[in-house]
Amino acid sequence: INAEYMGEELVTQLHAKLGSAATEQSGESAPQSDVEMHSTLKVVTTSESGRGLTTSASLPAGTIAVSELPLALAVRSESSTTHCAWSLTTSSSLLPMQCFNEIKWRSTSRFCSEQCARQNWISWGQVEAQHPFFRVCPLDFLLATRLFLALLRNNDLTGSDENIDSAERHHRQSNVSLQEISREVDDSLVVGGHETACVVLALHTGAVDLLLEQARAHVGAKGVPESVGAAAILLVGLMRKILCNGMAITKLASSYLPGAGSASYRQERIAKAVYGTASLLNHSCAPSCHLQWINGPYAASRRLVVRALHDLDPGAALTISYGPHRNRQRSTATRRKMLREQYAFECHCEACESGGEGVPLSEEVQLLLVQAADFYQKSRKLKASSRFSDAVDALVCSYEILTQRVPATVRPLHIIAKTCDGLAECFAMQQEFSRAADWCARGAAAAESAFGNGSIEIAHEYDKLAGVLFRAQRYDAALVAIEKAVPLLTCFYGPSHEGVRELSAYKRAILEMPRPRVAS
């Protein structure tokens, strides 16, 4: 939208409306500080884990431990046309906005409102807009330059203050504890390896010179490196720190089919960001905290929220999973290998120290698992072609192999749960909600055995089960599933979560409306 083609007053009014709608959707209403922490949090240093966050008092399950905005953020290229480059709001009508339309080099960033465009412009857009290299560079380099500017504004580019005694101070001195890892400096790692080449290319094109020039003009001379070479070294270091400390901002995308009583979800990566306080959270394969973003998990936003997964005792460490999770990767050796290659440390969390490798799989069992997987993949193709009856036959074959022919000691319960979910979806698509509910209940039982009754996996299983039971008019059973799902979803996502609101509406409808009781 450009004032050249529309009246200036109309453009202003439309941008104001877009900005208001974006603020309501994002949930980041003012006033909120950049970082908010529970009063019991403190930073400790141990020889095993280095710096980390602990609680000095009891922290109940579901409590928000940390809520913070990123120091720097960059949207992934595949999401740049569907998500605002500042607020990450999803929109089909994103625009460059006025401040970016007036520059020499056009920006690839798109925004949902003039307010978001202005915030981006002030933070780093006015620097990046002056050179085309920032439009084509790797995501980690773009994020490194934005972190470079953010740390300059905080007078913290060198991270000289080592005496940090609280998480709030650490947020202002956030880069002190960030690790530097890369395949460039350690052959055993699988990440990085192009940081120096990328920065050399930026030097050759003049992008680093311009970065320093613009930083002095818009941020101030204090803390700005004196030479281009010094700035280049800092950028290489920041890229290596981002490898270890950058967080993928994600959301769940639904593959809901009209008429189905349930939906399957896949995780989409929307952006990458660096959070000052959250970088203190150490890893555990059985973490005590859960990461989410405001309006998540079905929408993305800038603000990160860290919640306690269970009641934490005084002195307990706040930990998250860096990727490998005991519930999803059972092999301790595999988890340790992934963490060693990605983050250059040997995991000694409680799950790894106490967990075994399980029973080795014989060739016969491995062949059975391959056969079951083939039937499952065949069912997906049949389901995509709306051949739901044939998909049911394939899934039943997979289920029978897993539950009748694979020995109970090595039975993959998480795969059984996924197979049951597939059967439930097929029956729901054929409007056979009672049979769908039966399979969904079997899937929930398998998931509970596989992941535990307090896991995020079982929370989503109970959520799906309640919806299918409601559609099957099995109201008493639906109430039981709702009572199990709501506390878990609230713990992971908070009381305003979409699933919590929907299940609460189901419960009110069941309790208030006269209806026939159908046996569960």
Structure notes:
The protein has 520 residues and is α+β, with helices and mostly antiparallel strands. It has 18 helices and eleven strands. The strands form four sheets. The chain has a four-stranded antiparallel sheet with strand order 1-4-10-9. Strands 5-7-6 form a three-stranded antiparallel sheet, with helices on one face. Strands 2-3 form a two-stranded antiparallel ribbon. Strand 2 and strand 3 (50-55) form a beta hairpin. It starts with 7 loop residues before the first helix and ends in an 8-residue tail after the last helix.
Write the layout of secondary structure elements.
Elements: H1 8-26, E1 35-37, E2 41-46, E3 50-55, E4 64-68, E5 72-75, H2 98-101, H3 114-128, H4 133-136, H5 139-153, H6 167-172, H7 195-205, H8 207-218, H9 228-245, E6 247-254, E7 265-274, E8 282-283, E9 289-293, E10 304-308, E11 319-320, H10 332-343, H11 350-354, H12 363-384, H13 388-405, H14 413-429, H15 433-451, H16 456-471, H17 475-493, H18 498-512
Parallel strand pairs: 8-11
Antiparallel strand pairs: 1-4, 2-3, 4-10, 5-7, 6-7, 9-10
Helix pairs in contact: 5-9, 7-9, 12-13, 13-14, 14-15, 15-16, 16-17, 17-18
